[in-house]
Amino acid sequence: MTRTALTADDLAAGAPVHSPAASGEWWRDAVIYQVYPRSFADGNGDGIGDLPGVTARLDHLKGLGVDAVWLSPFYRSPQKDAGYDVADYRDIDPLFGTLADFDEMLEGAHERDLKIIVDLVPNHSSDQHVWFQEALAAAPGSAARDRYMFRDGRGPAGDEPPNNWQSIFGGPAWTRLAPGDDPSTGSGQRPSTGSGRGGDKGPQWYLHMFDSSQPDLNWDNPEVRAEFEAVLRFWLDRGVDGFRVDVAHGMVKAPGLPDWSGEVSMVEGTVDEPTTDPGAPEDGSTGAGNSGPMFDQDGVHEIYRSWHSVLAEYPGDRCLVAEAWVEPLSRLARYVRPDEMHQAFNFSFLTAPWDAARLRTVVGVSLDTMDAVGAPTTWVLSNHDVVRHASRFGLAEIGGRQLNGIAATDPQPDAALGLRRARAATLMMLGLPGSAYVYQGEELGLPDHTALPAEVRQDPSFFRTDGAEPGRDGCRVPLPWVGGAPGNGFGPTDKTWLPQPDAYADLAADRQYGVAGSTYEMYRTALELRRAEKIGTGGLAWVDALAGSPDVVAFQVAGVVVLANLGGAPVVLPDDVDVLVASGELVDGALPTDTTVWLRA
Ligand code: NOJ
Ligand code: CA
């Protein structure tokens, strides 16, 4: 391995490929911190995080230097999918507190100049939602059934599912009502419903792209549309600054619900291996797109246009963020056209391999495609659905399954390598213009729990695949606030709804505050510089001399050069270079492998 020595000329930026942001809405360059309420901080000691816990830790977020907080669902829910199964969209689940606790949290955030984004789950409700209960009690063809996706089964007796779709969590996407649940079949005699159903098809089936406790809503039904506009207004009136929209690419299904034999999973297929193969997709795709007749149908866009208008009626710049697993990026950009949503998560970036050429491609295409519609690009490396990047980057191979969860029987990540690369990836991400998402705990360098015993697992995808998928619990482990305290200070007792791995004690927040070189201090410094240097709204130019390098990603944003070394040999920096922040220590003026640095341009 040969050391590369750079001169000052080597670091010169080429022509800009992305212009500075033209308008100043806060979300264009915001760093948004994802709180997963059940695992952030426990206020009452029951082992489950809650809203008072969030309020009590707002100073951590302010101190870190983020601009906004997105909270995963806290609504009334039987918690079959950790709250992504909503029984009442207008109330707080008692597990998390009350509406008064929510108001207090919102006020505390606003006092600190932090925006609050809440999660909206419109693709499906819980089966405990009053609408689904009404649908069960009503007859086929009724208005109550029409709010969901009920269908007769196939075959003479209707005992085959209406089509062959598979649930994203495994198993069939259709569940048949038990005869006792279906009033139309209780007597064995099918009453005439006027719905044109021929013969006795027996109990109906309902569609659920996720767990059977999460029936899909029918977005062709105007009542469903009106209800969600009312739900938006409920939270806008309370003062929220935006919504993260769950499964934003899934609400409208292709007419006739045609069979589909392609792969369906949270993250489709297998994420590509690192490669500098010139045949790697030039459109930036990395395998993060769901496809099929249940995803990315053109009809979804009309819904977002109407929601855009609802938000526009409110003062301030409220925003909609799409959770849409859609590729290529040019399809994703359709969700953030000027009259639709404001941001979309960039899952092509999240799933990109640790490979210089692949990262340059995805960054470049992301900026181009979002610029074309006037939307900011977002950047994200971790969330509550994927293996944390500190663990992901410690795996020899990043396959699709391992992106969702790691089991004790799987090859285990190399923790030191994972953390080193995670810090380098983060520093690259925070140096990019646009909006960035930080998942709770990544600022501490937390890994997943990669050896959770089956008895404690809760993710429905674990159960629906008979354990073949470990599920997403490993990235949802309660945060360590005070190293060595009971539950590492997650709450006032030693209870944590999932066990924490041993490594969490040393990574606890209190062991990192003010400690030079800690992951927390790296994030804090980078966020402070990002704000001061106006990186989020800056233009971007590639560093020309390194634009074809198989080892180095280098670009200039505003007045800062970001240089990441993904190669096997150190890169010697020019003399007298002004280092602003680094993801690891420089060695004799050289940037070691798997390290990123910000330099004064
Ligand atoms: C995406 C959410 O992020 C995930 O956690 C959830 O299980 C599914 N949507 C279903 O709501
Ligand atoms: Ca609690």
Side by side, the strands of the main sheet go 13-12-11-7-4-3-15-14
Rounded to an integer in angstroms, the radius of gyration calculated over CA atoms is: 24 Å
> Termini separation (Å)?
28 Å
Mean pLDDT: 94
Query: What hetero molecules are bound to the protein chains?
Result: 1-deoxynojirimycin, calcium ion
CATH class of the largest domain: Alpha Beta
Give your account of this protein's structure:
- The strands form five sheets. The chain has an eight-stranded parallel beta sheet.
- It has helices at residues 37-40, 51-56, 58-64, 99-111, 130-137, 222-238, 300-312, 329-332, 347-350, 356-373, 389-392, 400-404, 415-430, 460-464, 504-507, 519-532, and strands at 4-5, 13-18, 31-35, 68-71, 75-76, 88-92, 115-120, 150-151, 174-176, 205-207, 242-245, 319-322, 343-344, 378-380, 435-439, 540-543, 552-557, 560-565, 571-572, 579-582, 590-591, 595-600.
- By secondary structure, it is of the alpha/beta class.
- 24% of the residues lie in helices and 14% in strands.
- It has three domains: 4-10 and 539-600, Golgi alpha-mannosidase II (Immunoglobulin-like); 24-125 and 222-526, TIM Barrel; 126-216, Oligo-1,6-glucosidase, domain 2, CATH 3.90.400.10.
- The chain is globular.
- Helix 6 (222-238) packs parallel to helix 7 and helix 13 (415-430) runs parallel beside helix 16.
- The protein has 16 helices and 22 strands.
- Bound molecules: 1-deoxynojirimycin and calcium ion.
